[in-house]
């Protein structure tokens, strides 16, 4: 199965309505054009990512191999009547994302040749380009993250499952983490504490699994506890992230891969420098300091949780009294 990326702009309306992709066989002066030539390699079952005005608006799958076809009457292409056509099923999204928000990632993920984005991360002028599974997965996860409607989410999850070699459990876990990730960054400290209490992997995790569940609630909460300072060297975070929060990394003192738990008493927030150091040196003294920190985090978390749950209860109580 191959992946493609199409820029449709003015023709999207017609191509979407008609369920196809169409491109002329040659350019204006009869020359070969690489972004039209790409059409010739589309086969049944291939996946196409659709971009309209810098937004990812749909995903489609080729219903059969590409074939030579005359220009559909509704397409106002001025110079060529002979073209290539691929019949596809479009799947559109209720909410979408702008590719310009992910320039760096798309640059990193783009294929080596015939890529839809140039070295500056801008879309290349043209019609059909090559994509790959990594780009597809990345974009769909981001699109999944902005959906609010459950049926929309399910639709995208199905699209993600379409072509994954990870087991079903692994996919579910990855998706759960993607969901929570977006949510966690928008919660208050008290809300995080309440979520952290309940968040755990959906099922008992098998030891051979390659994806380890990490609660984003715990991670975000520990970061708020760190108050912008590394919990090992105590220095200020080296920079602010895109959300203007001090940049710290989460570290599991006993590694998850060694059976460490994703719980407050095993997680600290540290600067990237210390994080590297710990993984390279595995210094016992550092470990002790971090365990102490984690213990403080745990205590603070318990206090916060009692407070948060207290508020919740008293507000429930107030409600029932009124009734
Ligand atoms: Zn540090
Ligand atoms: Zn770590």
UniProtKB/TrEMBL annotation:
TM spans (from-to): none
Species in which this protein is naturally found: Anaerostipes rhamnosivorans
EC number from the UniProt entry: 3.1.21.-
Any one Gene Ontology molecular-function term assigned to this protein's record: nucleic acid binding
InterPro entries: HNH, HNH_nuc
Coiled coil: none
Protein name (record): 5-methylcytosine-specific restriction enzyme A
SMART domains recorded: HNHc (SM00507)
Sorted UniProt keywords: Hydrolase
Segments forming domain HNH nuclease: 217-276
Lineage top rank: taxon: Bacteria
